[in-house]
Amino acid sequence: MTTRNDIAGAVHGQVVQAEHIGQVLLNAPGDREYRPMQLPPPPHAFVDRVDVLRSMDRALANQRRGPALFVLSGMAGVGKSAAAAQWAHTNKSRFEGGVLYADLTDFRGHRGVSTSDVISAFLGALGVHAPYIPAIRSERIALFRSRTADAPVLVVLDGADEPAQVRSVVPSAPGSVVVVTSRHRLAGLAIDGAEFIDLSPLNSDDSVSLMTRMVASRRIDADRMAFQQLVRLCAGLPLALRVASAGLAHHRRWPLARLVRHLSDDRERLNRLVVEGEGSSVGEMFDLAYDDLANEVRRLYRVLGLHPGSHFSLELAAVAAGLSATAAEELLESLCAANLLEEVGADRFRFHELIALHARRRADAELAAEERRDVVRRIVDWFALGAAAADAAMLGARWRLAEPDLSGWHVEFDGGAAVSWLETERPNLLAVLRAADAFGWYEVVWRMCDSLWPFFHVRKHYSDWVEAHRLGVAAAQITENPVAEAHLRNRLARAHIEMRDYSPASAQLDEAAVLSDDERVAAVLLESRGLLYRELRRYPEAVDIFRQLVAKQEKAGDDRAFAMQSYQLGDVLVRAQRADQAVPVLVAALTVATRLHNEKSVEAKVRIALGAAYHCLRQYDDARAELESAVRVTHARKEPVKEAQALEELVRVAEARSDRSLFQSSAERLYRLYAEAKNPRSAEVRRWLEADRRAEDEG
What we know:
- The chain has 33 helices and ten strands.
- By secondary structure, the protein is mainly α.
- A five-stranded parallel β-sheet has the order 2-5-6-1-7, sandwiched between helices.
- α29 (600-616) runs parallel beside α31.
């Protein structure tokens, strides 16, 4: 018998050909059992993101009905895909219907992602042959849901940028899971019951762990310091850490220090963080995220890239961009949603270190030099005005090198709020001073330095104090302003006195003395000389100086200066064991200080010295009253150094009068204060408290 093949064209599914056909049972096309397993290989040298993986496990355990949906979002290169793949590989056995995976970059055209093509690819993986995949998108979705209705399926979508891309591929079977990674937050998926998990850059320990797994230990051991620097330059970004590790693998003869030098240039670091032979750099990853932004959002991104500091407020963003606060807030939300910006507090934001470099690079490339200069000037002027307003709130009517116009500052400060604002903006203040110096705005530099004096004096940030005043002195020299130079040299000397660097302090005072014959300058220089003598325990010379100053200010009718110099005189007398002479001086100072407007800080200083004097004279009730009043004032004004000084004296009073209750309350407050400031004296105060408790138990 001869058999002919009468079937032409492609054949899909099952075919039976025979001359005589009896009863035949055929399965419908595409109904074979398929359990796809499409995951890419598990990530190499994955550093456990325990918090992320546990969050997903907990959410899945609590899932009551329907498929679970996870959205892993974060900045480019932060490790979203690796975390998704790691969880998927760990849990793939629980999905009887298989695992589907799609990198949406492969489906992205000039009109965006073709979800219809994604569904088609998934249907093919589920065993549906191409001729039987519907042409119409809605029918493809319906068939996908039918094919995933019987057994749990895991779907991993890598690189989604719209909620609609996700909704069309949610499996039907209970127990199914969809894991989505995105540079965007995809907040619209909240109505679908999505669990949102934000991935942050790795901490220092995890960054070291990741690189240690990828770099030969002998190279790390050869230069541990360079290794730590390399980790820091990658700023916790897993992509950057992996690229840097790959760079070491490519340049096998390079010592780590050479790669550190290679990456230390901020202008080139993003370009140099590239895998050899692949051509895709970390900077290009950020470019993709930037290109997705609307034009007005891109402009704000570029503008904020010019901010000299490490973080910023909503108000600063609005000023820098020349926008209203409402308009700026909307654009900042878009940057946060794109994970190019992080919100770190109420209306406060910051760039990741590498994204800040990218934003600056785009600003340099796309903004004209004049526009960049204008943006930085607006930023500098805003901070300078804020510093001046804070100074006015803290010290009221004091002698200033230049009286500012505060009409443009719309934040109301009292003393405590002023200190809080300055503390929050502290990293920015020094960065802004450096930027103003670099642009040659020297008058702004010395003016702003003058405004920051009370903050540095109260909070004792000595490194900032010294650098700011060195910039201020240099700026005053360039602008040929001897009064400003002498005044700022005096302030620099005060920092050195408090740091017990007496030789440079004396040198600064000597240089300042020959610059100007201004009486006010002469007075502040004489006061600083008296403080230097006090610290050197040359008490008679210090007393003579402060007696001169008290008499001079009393004659001039300057109440604030009189109160301050009387305080200094009384303080020296107490230290010189002449408390009986100190009390009337300090009482006179307190009488004047209490009637001064907005001068609570001066009053608190006087009360601390007066409390110490009463303590020396064993007038413990009077000492306690003055010191407790000083504690209340300094605490309210957020002046922890002075508050600690008052509490230390109060502890001594409590010990002298064997007042255990006062000792415990004062020492406990002092311990908390030192612990919050990470002051090593906290350990000593803790020992005081432990000894007191033991004594109480034994008693």
